[in-house]
Amino acid sequence: MMNYTYLLSLVATSGTTQIDKAIVTELIDLCKTTMGLFTEFPLNVFLVASLVGIGFGIFRMAKRSARR
User: What is the pTM of this model?
Assistant: First the structure.
């Protein structure tokens, strides 16, 4: 069983954490660029089809592993 008071004391003694703004900015720019790909029609269809295919593949693997 986990000792939650120990974890809380670690968080309390670690002080304030700082988020690197450069990493957050790069992540936001990456998301904007990725979402911009959905605005072009041929690429939009390709991305949606590939995401659907990946989704079906994941569900198929999960279904097979649940049977075992």
Answer: 0.40
